[in-house]
Each structure stands twice: as C-alpha cells, then as structure tokens.
Design a protein that fits this description.
The chain has about 80 residues and is an alpha+beta fold. It has one domain. It is built from one helix and three strands. It has a three-stranded antiparallel sheet, with helices on one face. Strand 1 and strand 2 form a beta hairpin. The longest helix has 19 residues. The radius of gyration is 17 Å and the shape is flat.
Length: about 80
C-alpha cells in the first residue's frame, strides 16, 4: 500500500497545489502465460489547490482516503474473530 501527498506552493506563497493518492499494489499474473507484475488494484485520490495557512487540513483528506481503503478492504475480507 502506498500513501502519497504532493504539495507544490505557488511562487506568490498564497496557494499550493496538492495531490493525494492512496493505492494498493498487488502481484498479478496473466492467465495466458503466467507473466507476473506488480500492479495497482485499488486507488483513490484527490487534487486541488489550498491556501498555504490551511495546509494542515490536508491531514483530514489523507485520513478520509485511508478510511475509504480500510472500508473497501473490510467489505471483502472477514474480520478476525476476537
């Protein structure tokens, strides 16, 4: 799993562009020849711009993206007993 946050401030120092990505990578094989590769099998992300003084609010966006992954994972994987 990878969590990436990229922030690029504008030259005027007032705004910054951002990109948030949460992605799950797994090894997959082609049925025909068995060729294996690591591929992204699930991802969610957001892009936008934000005022520099508000950059710390991006934490909530990252938390929301990770929560989406956890909910998707738990929807197809049983929780362990106990």
């Amino acid at each position: 799993m990878a969590v990436q946050v990229h922030v690029v401030p504008r030259a005027d120092g007032l705004l910054a562009a951002y990109a948030i990505t949460v992605e799950l990578y797994q090894v997959a094989a082609l049925e025909k020849d068995g060729f294996k590769a690591t591929v992204s099998t699930w991802s969610v992300g957001a892009t936008g711009s934000i005022g520099i003084p508000l950059l710390d609010t991006l934490r909530d966006s990252v938390k929301d993206a990770v929560a989406q992954f956890i909910n998707a994972y738990l929807s197809v994987n049983l929780r362990p007993a106990g």
